[in-house]
Design a protein that fits this description.
Helix content is 3%, strand content 42%. The protein is an all-beta fold and 415 residues long.
Amino acid sequence: MDCSSVQKSLAWCQGKPELPGVKRRIYYISKYDVLRWPRLQHDANGRLTSAAYAGDFVLRADAKWKFIDIISDKSQLTSEAQGEYPSQTQLNKLVAVHPGVDDEASAAAAYLNNNDNVFLVEDMRGAFRVVGSDKWPTKTTVAQDLGQGATGTTSTTINVEATDECPAPFYAGTIDTEDGEINPEGNPNQDTGNNSGSGSNTGGSGSSAPTYNSSVQINGQNYSVTQGGTINITGNLTSMKFTGSHMSYLSYKIGSEETEIPINSAETSANCIDVISAPKTVKVYRQEGTGDDRHDVLWFTINMTASSSTGGNTGGNTGGGSSSAPKLTISRSGNGISTVTANGNSVTSGSELQAGTEVSISVTPAEGQVPTANLNGSTVALTENNGVYTGSFQMPSGNAALVINSGNSNDDNYN
């Protein structure tokens, strides 16, 4: 374990102005509508190395950041330490004063008081700060003052308290609002808390650190992977899909042979459609670091176990006889996510299932798309619920071919 210090010098130029206060509009959204959070960056020991988020907030389809106009001179963002060593955290506090007390302002108390929200606050330098975390709940309380006498002042005051690892982290990514997008090109500078980034990393020599989403599609199914972890699958490996930001290099190794995985020009997606026959061990590598410090690291390992349908040697007699159960072949296309299960277990292409087995399909399609499923050329009915389409069928007495199209959101098709 490397326990060397991560502390750095903190300089300040005499005469440099530090502008106090926050700007007159804040943004908020329910955490329910956040599909994926940007991430704070840590070293191998879990120590925070930056107060700036890497990546962007990814929202549910049609979800937008809402705004609240506030009185800047009466609003404030503060942060203070809480807890005891070695488990101290920061308590970020936002006081946002809205001047109105009409029915819309009054209704805000109902949906803010009883919801777990995340807030974005813009400081006077134009940097957005995040009040709210994916780790801890956000407490919001609303107070209202109708004023007193002819010289009184009306106000609806929103008080927010949110625990986080550091004082209100910086966020330089996309903010999709009802009035349009802020930073529509996404997070331009992964390692700083300002909005002065100059575009994406090119050629592996830029200052933006690559980020990789922990959700990876293997054979069309979604897996959550961790660095150094292992995924076990039965049967052949037919596809892998990766997403993230500023991804510069991905590869897989079988023994000493390394194969590069192509990354799209936006450095946000990588697809591998190489067919790898089981049994094998596949090691997936990614590139981390910035500038001259870029280096390849082992990300995760896939252990592939041969099934009777993959041709792997199981030590038995290889002559005579045939499988007693029909085989289900699964083909996938589109950029959504689909899973096939039977008896509570995941089903991979080439699996053998007894005739009459109930097989279930679940599809989360690409944004704005409607998925389809066909079994031996006949449509399998899919029912939508909260953006997820489900259906089922009984395994026929002979071999069957299931084709799932989860919808294309771009031209990165894969099978």
